[in-house]
Amino acid sequence: MKTPQRAFRRSSRRLLAVAVACGVLATMAACGSDMAPKLPDDAASPPMPVGVQDPAQLPDVTTDDSCGDATASYAPSNGLNIGSGSTMAQIKANGVLKVGVDQNTYLFGYRDPSTNDLSGFDVAIAREIARAIFGDPSKIQYKAISSDQRVPFVQQGEVDMVVRTMTMNCARWKDVAFSSEYFRAHQQIAVYGAHKVVETLEELKGERVCAATGSTSIRKIADSAATPVAVPEWTDCLVMLQQGTVDAISTDNAILAGFAAQDDQVKLSTTSLSEEPYGIAISLEHRDLVEYVNAVLEDLRGNGTWAALYAKADDSGNSLKSLLGPASPPAAVYK
Amino acid sequence: MPTGTTGNTMAPVSSQQSGTSTVDIPRQRGGSPVVAPGAKREHLLGRGRNTPGRLTLLMAVLAFLALASGVAGVADVVGRDDLIDGVSDGSGRLGVAALEVYQSLSDADATATSAFLAGGVESPELRDRYDEDINHASIQLATAAASISTQEGADAVARLSADLPVYTGLIENARTYNQQGLPVGAAYLREASGLMQDRLLPAAQELQDNAGAQLAETQDSAATLPWIALAFILLTLGVLAFTQIDLSKRTNRTFNVGLLAGTIAMVLVLGWLGVASFLAAGHIDSGRDRGSAQIERLAEARIAALQARSAESVTLIARGGKSAADYEASFVQQMNLLLDTANGPLAKAKAANTDPALTPILDQALATAQAWNETHATLRGDDQRGEYTKAVELALSTEDGGAAKLSRQLDDLLAQAIGSAGDHFRSQTSAASNSLTGAGIGVGLLAVVCLAGAANGLQRRIAEYR
After folding, report:
1. Would the keyword Transport be found if you checked this record's keyword annotation (chain A) (predicted)?
2. Distance (Å) from the C-alpha of residue A66 to the closest C-alpha of chain B?
3. pTM to 2 decimals?
C-alpha cells in the first residue's frame, strides 16, 4: 500500500519540479522539445568541385583569324646556339627553367599518385628543352597552373614558358608568342555510361557540358545549344561526369582519352569538332627563346624523340599512342 | 486497481485535515463579535489597539510571508540545482559535444589530406586516425542532437548529419582512385575538402556557437541571486521586527519567545540561502571563466591549428593552380590567428589563465606554432622552387622540425590544455552543486520553524483576550 503512495508522491513531486522548471526556466531542454530540425534548401544539392562556375562565365573572344595561320611561329635563325645576352643565357644564369605545367591531366601533365613525380607528354617536352639548355633535363622549376592562369603567368614573367595543352589561336597570339605546333589535338565529346554517344554539341541541346575555365572548349560549348559548366581543373570535369552533375565533357581528345583511361564508362565521340594545335607559350618579348624552342622541337621531330615520347607508356600500360592511335609529329609552320 | 483505491482513500484524508484547519480559523474569528462593533473597521484603518483581530491579521500575514519565503527559497534551491545539473549534464555536455564535432571533423580532414600527400596506399596509422575521427564526430553529433534546444542548433545538427556521409563517400572515392594511381583521386579529395570547408565546418561552427550560448545562458541563470526568495525573507523579517517592537511597546514584556525564535529561524534562512547561492554562483563563475570560456578559446586555437594543417597539405595536393593559392592563404590566416599575441585565442587563453600548471603548456604551444610556421615557410619555398618531393617530405616528416611532428605536438599540447580546463569546469560545477547540499531541506524546515514560532507567539497574545 505504501509503495504506490510514495511513488505517487514522488511522481507528483517530480511533476511539480518539472512544472516549476518549465515555468521559471524557458531555456531548459527538458521542457517539451517539439522542434523539427530542418535542412536548408540547398542541402539536397550534390557536392561540386571547389570553384565550379555554373553556368560558366565565358571568355570574351571567340573566332579571331586576324593573324592568319595561328600555327605559324618564328623560324629558328640561330639553331641551338645560346648567344650572350639572350633570354636563354639569362635562364642559364638563373640555374633553372621555369615552366608552367598541369599536374592533373593524365598522360599530359600529371603527378603520378604512386611516385609523386610529374609525368606526361607536356612535362617530357619541357624536360627536353631543359636538357638542350642545361644538358640536364631535371633543371626545371615546375609551376602548376590552371587553364586560365596560362596567359597571365607568361605575361607577368612568373614562368619562362607554359607547356600545358594550350591551343594556339589568333586571340592568344595578341598576348603571348607560341612555339611551332608540337601536338595536334581535336575537340571531341565524352559522355558517361548509358548516355548515347553523341558526335555534335547540337545533340546535347539543353544538357550540361563541362570544360575548364578559360579554355577554348568552354567557348565552343557556349556557342552551341548546350549549357556550359566551367571548372578550375580538367579532372574536376571527370568528377562531375562520374557524379552525374554534368551530362558530357567536351574538350581535346588528348584530355578525354586520359579520362577514358581512368574510367571505362567514359565514352568518346569519333568526330573532330575542331582542330586544336598545341604550342608552347612564351613571352612576346622573348622571340629568341621562341626560335630556340623551335630549334629544339625540330630536333625532337627529326631524331625520333617525339615518337618515343608519344608511345611511352606509364605503369598502367597507357600511352598516348595506345589511347589515341598512331600519329606523327605535326609539321612546323613558320611565319 | 490497488493504485486507484489508494488514491481515493488518500484524498478524503487530506481534505478532512484541511477541513479541520479551515474550521479553526472561523473559531478564532468567532471571537471578534465579543469586541465592540466598529472595532473591525478601526483596526482595518490601523487605529486599533492590541485587539485579537489585529493580532490575527498580523499572524495571517506572517504565516503567509514565512510560507512564501520557505516556498520561494526551496524553489530557488531546487531550480538552481536543476540549472547546475543543466550546466554539467545538458548544456555542458552539449558544449563539449559541439566542440568535439568541430575538432574531429577538422582532424579528419587534416588526416585525410596528409594521407593523400604521402602518395600510394596510405599508412595504417593515418587510416585509423581518420576512422576514429569520423566515429567520434558521429557519436558527438548524436550527443549534441539529444541535448540541443534551439532551432538553429537542431538545423545545424541536421545539416551535419546529412553532409557527413557525403564527405566520407567522396573520401572513399578519392582513396580508391588514388590507390589505383589515377589523378582523378586528387580531384575527389579537393571536392571532399571543399565540402568540409564550405558546408560541414560552418554548420559545426553554428552548432558550437549555439551550444556555447546555451551553456552561457544556463550558467547565467544558475549564478543569479535568489531575488524573489530574498524579497520575501526580508519582508518577513521586517514584519517580524515590527510586530515585536509593537508588542513590546503595548505590553510590558520585552521579548516574545515565539516571535524571537521565528526571527532567528528566518535570519538563518537568509544566511543559508544567501551563502549557498553566493558560493554556488562563485563556483559557476569560476567554472566559466577558467573552465568553459577557456575551453572555447583553446578549442578555437586547436581548430585553427588543424585547419592550418589541412590547408598545408591541400596546398601541396591541389598541385598548383589557383586553388593552391587559396589554400595557402587559408594557412596564413589560421597561423596568424594562432600567433596573434594581442587578440589570438592562445593569447587570450594565456591572459585569462590563473592556473600555474597551464602556463608552460600554453607557452610551449605558442613556441611550437612559431616553429611550425618556420618549417612551413621552408617547405613552401621548396615547392615554389619546384622541389615538390622535398616539400612533401618536410610536410610529412615526423623528425624534429618536421611539419607533421610540429603540428601533432601543437595539437597534443592544446588537447592537454583543453583537458585541464575541462577538469576545472567539472570540479567547479560539482562544487557549485555541493554548496547547495541540504539547503533545500534546511530552508524549508527553518521557514516552518519561523511559521510555528510566530504563530505560537501571537497565539499566546490572542489567548489573553479570551
Report:
1. yes
2. 31
3. 0.75
